[in-house]
Amino acid sequence: MLHSIAFLGISAGGGGVNIDFDLTFTLQMLLFVVLIVALKPTLFDPLLKVFEAREARTEGAKDSAREMQRQAGELLKRYESELQRVNVAAAEERDKIRAETTRLEGEILGKARAASALVLESGRKEIERQVQQIRFELGRRSEVLGREVAARALGRDVQ
Fold it and tell me: Under 8 Å CB-to-CB from 151, ≥6 apart: which residues?
């Protein structure tokens, strides 16, 4: 092969490149072309189709991922707006319940105060009645005791 290709170089005489095309070079070029023609439909075309399919799947996957991200963003926005709506509704309901609880508390305290006032008034009346009864009893007994003290002091019965 070294003999088939002439030495590429510049001759000392100031010249150009000297290339020798012989039969082996032509045969190698012919074999190369046959190999390319034979490999194109059997290797290169299927390989290029695989590369194109992979690229299409990759782009399809990227497009699908972009679409899923967009949908996820929309879902997140809907979720946040729904959560906000639920929080507002819950706050309103909580305020209603607090108002109702405060009203019921006032009613219960009012009833308890009224009941305790009745019990207190009833207790005061009972105490007053008992005080009157005790005073009456003391008055009656003081009369009896006064007679006994006078009878003992005088040494005789006093009427």
Answer: 157, 158
C-alpha dist (Å) from residue 49 to 36, 44, 58: 17, 9, 14
Q: How far apart are the first and last CA of the chain?
A: 173
Residue 34 to residue 21: CA distance in whole angstroms = 19
Q: Which of left, alpha, beta for 155 (phi over 0: left; psi -120 to 50: alpha)?
A: left
Tokens 């399809």 appear where? 60
Round to whole Å and give the CA distance between 142 and 146.
6
Helix locations, the chain, DSSP H:
23-39, 45-154
Q: What is the pLDDT of residues 76-121, one digit of tens each?
A: 999 999 999 999 999 999 999 999 999 999 999 999 999 999 999 9
Angle CA(150)–CA(141)–CA(125) in degrees, nearest 5? 155
